[in-house]
Amino acid sequence: MKILVLPDIHGRDFWREPCQNIEEYDKIVFLGDYLDPYGFEEISVEKAIDNFKDILLFAKDNPKVVMLLGNHDMPYFSSTYYGFSTYHCRISTMHYKEIHGIFKEHEDLFKIAHHEGDVLFTHAGCLSEWLSSIFDKKYDEKIDLDELCKELNDLPNETVGLNLLYMVSSERGGCDEVGSCIWANWNEMQYDSVLGEVERHYAIHDVKQVFGHTLQAFISSSKVIEKENGSLKLVQNYGFGKALEFKNIKMIDTGCAYELETEEFTINKISK
């Protein structure tokens, strides 16, 4: 199975060109975080909203498209989540009402988790310790991914489920032991993927995972330019790292699209 995977959007338009070749793919999976652009990329909130609307139009017209929710999406998606969450990332309070309305209008398009065969897609990756704590299951035994995805996709429907999604570890500035599938830090996942390394950690048996969430941008070059008014401005060019891969895990958030072959579980970056 060939899947086009589109990591954290944050207002970027790298999804457009590969999505023109939709017939080449069995599925197209957006990993979430559609808004709240990074300041260094100089994408306005208004431009990010227009970009999000275009993604929604594309998704509505194409049943192959799967749209997942990320940590930046949940405050907009759920006013209840917004109400009890104290950590809102870079949320735009000025545009909150408009963005919340867009999410509500299209809420049936969104999921927390999706799987194709033995490959599980979430925004930040599912830690077995988090799953064990909320569902009271041992994930070193074979699990039913249909059942797991149903349970995860039901979480936004109840306040208790929203609280479980808002579990943030110290790795991301929170106070929980581990992060949820929209908040887990990449190194938590790496730690959790090794069966028996710590007594309370369990590898998710025979489950491959693909997720984004952790920005891998780095400064590739810098220069100072003189503006027309005589003032100086530092201009920095950013590059992006490659996917982090370890034991049944592929973490991607590199400002571009990826092609995933599920049978071999290989992933390749599509150049901009």
Description:
By secondary structure, the protein is α/β, with parallel strands linked by helices. The protein has one domain (2-269): Purple Acid Phosphatase, chain A, domain 2. It is built from 9 helices and 13 strands. The protein has helices at residues 16-19, 45-61, 74-77, 79-84, 96-105, 128-135, 145-154, 159-165, 186-192, and strands at residues 2-6, 27-30, 65-68, 110-111, 114-116, 119-121, 208-211, 217-226, 232-240, 244-246, 249-251, 258-261, 266-269. The strands form 3 sheets. Strands 4-3-2-1-12-13 form a 6-stranded mixed beta sheet, covered by helices on one side. It has a 5-stranded mixed beta sheet with strand order 5-6-7-11-10, with helices on one face. A two-stranded antiparallel sheet has the order 8-9. 39% of the residues are buried.
